[in-house]
Structures are given as C-alpha cells and as structure tokens.
Amino acid sequence: MPQTRLQRVRRVVSALAPAAAVLPIGFLVFMRGGSVLDAITIVPAWAIAAATIAHLLTLALRTEAWRTVLRGAGGERIDLSAVHAANAGAFLAGTVQGQAAMPTRIALLRRYGGENSPGVSQIALADAPIVMFEVCAAALLAAVGSTAVGVIPAWAPWAMLGGAVAVLAALRLVYGRLRHRSIAAGLGVLASPDLRIRLAIVVAAFTGMALLRTWIVLVGFGLPSDPAHLCLVLFTMGAVGLLPIGVGTGPTATVAALGTTNLAAATAAGLVVSSATVLAVLLYAGATWAWRARVPEPVPALDLAQNRLAVAAHQ
Question: Are 190 and 132 in contact (CB under 8 A)?
C-alpha cells in the first residue's frame, strides 16, 4: 500500500511540474499576445536563420560527443551515418519529451549499428561521462551568471563543479575495478586520455555553439546580451530542460532569467529559441536520414554466420 501511494504521488508530481512551468507562459501569451507577436515580427530574419544554423552545429557536435563515448565502449566500427541517424531520432523525441531521448537513441543505434553496436546497458552508461562534463560546463555558466543576479549563491557553482569532478573520478575508479565486465564498457572513454580530452573539447564546443545561438537571439530582440546575462539564460535553459516540458523550455527559461527586463521580448525570444531548435532538429533529422537511406542495412551477426557456413558447404 505505501509503495502504491508513493507511485501515485510521483505520477501527480510528474504531471504537475510541467504544468506549473508551462501554464504561466501560456497565460502570459494569452494576456500579452499582441506585444509578444509584435516583438517576434520585428526581430531580424537573420537572427532566426543564424540561430537555427548555430543549433544545427550544436546537434552535430553533440553527436560527435556521443560517438566519442561509443568509441570508448568498443563501438568504433559503427558506421558514422548510423550514429547521426540514431541521434537524430533521439533529438526528435527529446523535443517532445526529454526523457524519451535515451531509449529512442538506444533502440535506433541497436537497429542501425547491427552487430557493431554495443549492448543496451553499455550504450545507456555511456551517457554518464557526457552528462558529467555538461554539468562541469553548466557550473561555469552559473558562476558567470551569478554575477548578473543574486539568486545563485556564489558557492553553488563551485560546489556543482566539484561534485561533477568527483563523480567523474568515481566513474573512472569504477571502470578500473570492473573493466573486465562488459557493462562497464560504457565508461571506457574515461580510461583513455585521448578520448577523454576529445570529449571535453567537444562538450566545450557545443556549449559554445549554444552560447552563440542564445547571444544571437538576445541581440535580435534587444535584450541584455553581456556575458553574465548570456550565461544566466543558457544555465536557466539547462535547468528548466530537466522538466518534461519539451518546446516550453525556451520561453520558460528566458522569462525566468530576463522577464524583469522586458517581459514580452523575453517571452518572444524564448519562443524563437524553441522554434529555431525544432527547425534545426527537423533539418538535421531529414539530412541524416537521407544520408542513412543511401547506406546498406547492416547484416545481423547470425545471418552473416549462416551465409559463411552456406558458402563453406558449397565449396
């Protein structure tokens, strides 16, 4: 009975949390729809196009980060088009429901990668190093963003950074102890200095592209775009992105970070960020799936073995 009650509470909280974040934005758009629409119509077209291109590059770099951890997990033989196509599906699922991205990525990679794909548990665990490096980047964003507002305690970003580094060290230790077990292969990237440095560089690169996209939109709407506010907006987007609100992340984050500056412009800027994100994901998925359609499907290991036996028997 207590377990059932706890499950009900979790379901209610998971349903109310997104609503609590999205409903104020919906109410704001309803009450000030004219002002928000005016703000969107005056933004330069170049800002929307440039934001979309910047996010396209962010998606490609995120896939490169994932390919790096897969190499550490023994998936270096997976076709490049398979990795991009699988991640494209994950990005599409993530725009609707963030928690759906990982299972979608795993399912598609297992299908596209064939016998060269690592196991399900290995693929899932391979996300951990990327997430921890992203937490490190988010901590630095929070440190800079805290200078714009007093809401973020000065010690919090450094505590976050220290915690992320400690977790990375612990994961490296776990891999060292369990490296003989297949499940630990997902953490293999941490044991290779070359791959570890490569992953850190790629995470820094796609964080930089996300900053560029955010800066373009803020400049286009005439909102504060100094380093402190820029980092604050991107950090807030990352924090709000943990909620299952999909495309509501953009306006929720910009209103939370910049609403006191210009409420209508902040809402419109968030809507443009979400629109550019969705458009970039669609373009990325279309391009990668068209590329994937030109690549032959991988032959399953069982079928390959049977074919070899048949050839040997014929000879």
Answer: no
